[in-house]
UniProtKB/TrEMBL annotation:
Name of the molecule in the record: 3-hydroxyacyl-CoA dehydrogenase
Known pathway: Lipid metabolism; fatty acid beta-oxidation
Keyword Lipid metabolism (UniProt): yes
Species, as recorded: Pseudomonas linyingensis
Record CDD domains: crotonase-like
Coiled-coil regions listed in the entry: none
Catalyzed reactions: a (3S)-3-hydroxyacyl-CoA + NAD(+) = a 3-oxoacyl-CoA + NADH + H(+)
Pfam families in alphabetical order: 3HCDH, 3HCDH_N, ECH_1
Localization (cell): Peroxisome
Swiss-Prot/TrEMBL keywords: Fatty acid metabolism, Isomerase, Lipid degradation, Lipid metabolism, Lyase, Multifunctional enzyme, NAD, Oxidoreductase, Peroxisome
Domain called 3-hydroxyacyl-CoA dehydrogenase C-terminal: residue spans: 480-573, 608-696
Domain 3-hydroxyacyl-CoA dehydrogenase NAD binding stretches: 299-475
Major localization listed first in the record, in broad terms: other
Length: 702
């Protein structure tokens, strides 16, 4: 009768085992069967209590995200099902193993009693999907753990450890171990039966708003609105919790459902759900499956103990892997190791690490000046100066000293990985691992597949990337790979717009208003105008076709105005404050005159369209060339590595939202309007033209 549920009786207990692999997402069939099992147990006079658990699986990861916009509310919809369960006449115990997230935690809360194994995580991650808890979470959580803590839990989206859940009263008990969970849950249920306990105990915070200061929600919104930027879901979630504080449960539940539907139908939630599935897809590469043997990685070497090399090394020490750090000079090595220790000490001060963990991690890091110490490394990552000549020396040496089968990786951000691979006699073992700065913090990892990179090398790199907590995205070889290649035309338009009459502050404001963490010109000031100059080096031949291209940035470079670190770049800096630099504005005017560029008033719309659409256009070109495997990969790179707002879903999802035809028409219009410059640079990507020609609204390569 059941396909996803294991229903069994244990004397006076009904055991309801949820068995929908992999994570018990509450899709329609599971909801139907859970309802049927609940009704069966309710109707059976021999049953005195029920235990709900995950049968060999995590308890429950929530509603089935793939159903949103489809069968999410087909009967029994989760909110109604949980209202039915919460009205049970018999005590129900949720046995939480692994995780109870979102609708999974709501299911656990609808059961009157909860017991958890000590390693479980419980939380409300809906906000990360542009949603709010929609099956009682915003109403039951405040009544269980208090309004303020509930609000923080819902708005952070971060799961709680089981111990913390116990402290807060979210669970009633912890078990000795995961293995004893079901037994202890049954014992708990029997105790409840014996004690004649009510099916729903009274809520510890029956009036959750009672202790809140006056104007709590208004003040809270005022404090957070900067952080929430243009996001809708936090406001809706807050509203739902406010109602929980002011209205009876039934009214709150009904209102929550409406607010949830509003969030679910919003473009922002669609965008965030797109990224959720894109992230799951990103690890999948044609030709790679679980049967492919991976290369064992037990020891890593990093060349270069600068900021980048040090950050990369920390990732491996963090997972208990020994790392050798190689430098040319003793002082540089000592400085690098001292910086790593400093970073760990900061984490310890913030309570994120114990002192013992700091020492354990430092003990895994060994410094050397001698390439011979790299002989037993399974993976070597080079993080030295961005120069092909320097890379040649490093890789030729690695070819001599490294053991056969060792993976040789370069952290280059723009150079040709195939050319680097050709410096060795084993190009099949060479790959790009492009970390983003700070490498111990940023989640994005571009895994650059050379034309000869072996499949098992790629698969090993992807697996290892996940192990160190990164989001690995595969890119083919081209200038700048996915991220920096797209940055180029986006930044080019910003720089050109300066000559045409926009100011740095105007350009950056348009971008931050859209939700980007930082405008592109501020970003260059932060990264360093000298760094920008350096990474343009491989492009000089192409750049020479257009005299306006980066003239301003090149002049700033020549003046030693490298950005924030020198106090002057596109802006003048006073500490962290910045303002437009009159000299930069004058320079832009002079250059425009020299280059015969007509200056004019530039609208915000034009800044948006030219910067964003050229970014999108390059993304489409990258997809067409097969540099990126799928549109979602491109969106991940930009949301995870370049501060593109997640609630817009990444540049290509944003293009779909705006309409591909609009993007194409706008590029064509500026191409015409901008004369020779437009003709040179504003060339619509053939894929964009093809998609629009056949009336497609979604981006895919074919
Ligand atoms: C919600 O509950 C709303 C309610 O309040 C109200 C409703 C009315 N649905 O990440 P993994 C799939 S909103 C569908 O690689 P891990 C995932 O796509 C929901 N599918 O594994 C993947 O599929 P595939 C609130 C889901 O071990 C596979 O499971 N809940 C769901 O690294 C393995 O996933 C959340 O936001 C789902 N809910 O991480 C939790 N969850 O193999 C979202 C997973 O085909 N999920 N899948 O690629 C997660 O955070 C992680 O997936 C989890 C496992 C921590 C569970």
């Amino acid at each position: 009768m059941y396909t996803l549920i294991d229903y069994s009786l244990d004397n006076e207990l009904a055991l309801i085992g949820l068995g929908r692999a992999p994570v018990n997402a509450l899709g329609l069939t599971l909801r139907q069967e859970l309802q049927a099992a609940f009704r069966q147990a309710s109707a059976d006079p021999a049953v005195k209590a029920m235990v709900v658990y995950g049968r060999g699986l995590p308890f429950c990861a929530g509603a089935d995200i793939a159903e949103f916009g489809g069968a999410a509310f087909d009967a029994p919809a989760l909110p109604q099902l949980l209202i039915e369960l919460a009205g049970s006449a018999k005590p129900m115990v949720a046995a939480v193993g692994g995780l109870a997230l979102g609708g999974g935690l709501e299911l656990a809360m609808a059961c009157g009693y909860r017991i958890s194994e000590p390693k479980a995580r419980l939380g409300m991650p809906e906000i990360t999907l542009g949603l709010l808890p929609g099956a009682g979470g915003t109403q039951r959580l405040p009544r269980l753990i208090g309004a303020e803590t509930a609000l923080e839990t819902i708005l952070s989206g971060q799961p709680l450890r089981a111990e913390r859940a116990l402290e807060l009263g979210l669970v009633d008990r912890l078990t000795a171990s995961a293995e004893t969970l079901l037994d202890e849950a049954c014992a708990f249920a029997r105790e409840l039966v014996l004690a004649g306990a009510p099916a729903q105990p009274s809520a510890p915070h029956a009036a959750p708003g009672a202790d809140l200061p006056a104007n709590f929600f208004v003040d809270y919104t005022a404090r957070k609105s900067g952080q929430w930027k243009g996001q809708v879901a936090p406001h809706l979630a807050l509203e739902a919790v406010r109602i929980a504080c002011e209205q009876p449960l039934e009214i709150g539940l009904a209102r929550e459902e409406e607010l949830f539907k509003e969030a679910m139908d919003s473009p922002q939630s669609k965008a965030l759900r797109h990224l959720f599935f894109a992230e799951r897809e990103a690890g999948k590469v044609p030709g790679i499956d679980a049967s492919l043997p991976l290369r064992p990685i037990r020891k890593v070497a990093v060349i270069g103990a600068g900021t980048m090399g040090g950050g990369i090394a920390m990732n491996f020490a963090n997972i208990g892997m020994p790392v050798v750090l190689l430098e040319q000079k003793r002082e540089a090595l000592d400085r690098g190791l001292a910086q790593i220790r400093k970073n760990y000490e900061i984490s310890a001060k913030r309570g994120k690490l114990t002192q013992e963990q700091v020492e354990q991690r430092m003990a895994l890091l060994a410094g050397t000046l001698d390439y011979a110490d790299l002989a037993d490394a399974d993976l070597v990552i080079e993080a030295v100066f961005e120069s092909m000549e320097v890379k040649r020396q490093v890789f030729a040496t690695l070819d001599e000293v490294c053991k056969p089968g060792a993976i040789l990786a370069t952290n280059t951000s723009t150079l040709d990985v195939d050319q680097i691979a050709a410096f060795t006699r084993r190009p099949q073992d060479v790959i790009g691992l492009h970390f983003f700065s700070p490498a111990n913090v940023m989640r994005l990892l571009e895994v650059v597949r050379g034309k000869e990179t072996a499949l098992d090398v790629l698969a090993t790199a992807l697996k290892l990337g996940k192990q160190i907590g990164k989001l690995p995205v595969v890119s083919g070889v081209c200038y700048g790979f996915i991220g920096n290649r797209m940055l180029e035309p986006y930044a080019r338009e910003a720089h050109r717009l300066l000559l045409e009459g926009a100011t740095p502050a105007q350009i950056d404001r348009v971008l931050t208003d859209l939700g980007l963490n930082m405008g592109v010109l501020s970003m260059y000031d932060l990264v360093g105008i000298d760094v920008g100059y350096l990474i343009r080096t491989p492009l000089r031949e192409v750049l020479a076709r257009d005299p306006s291209y980066y003239r301003l940035a090149d002049e700033l470079y020549a003046l030693g105005r490298y950005g924030q670190k020198t106090g002057r770049g596109m802006y003048i800096y006073e500490g962290r404050e910045r303002q437009d630099d009159p000299e930069v504005l004058a320079m832009a005017e002079r250059l425009a005159a020299e280059l015969g560029i007509q200056r004019r008033e530039i609208s915000d719309q034009e800044i948006h369209d030219r910067c964003l659409f050229m970014l999108i256009n390059e993304g489409l070109q990258i997809l067409d060339e097969g540099i990126a495997l799928r549109a979602g990969d491109i969106d991940l790179v930009w949301t995870c590595g370049y501060g593109f707002p997640t609630w817009l879903g990444g540049p290509l999802h944003y293009a779909e939202h705006l309409g591909l035809e609009r993007v194409l028409n706008s590029i064509r219009q500026y191409r015409e309007q901008l004369g020779a410059y437009g003709e040179l640079w504003l060339q619509p990507a053939p894929l964009l033209e093809r998609l629009v020609a056949v009336g497609k609204t979604r981006i895919s390569k074919d």
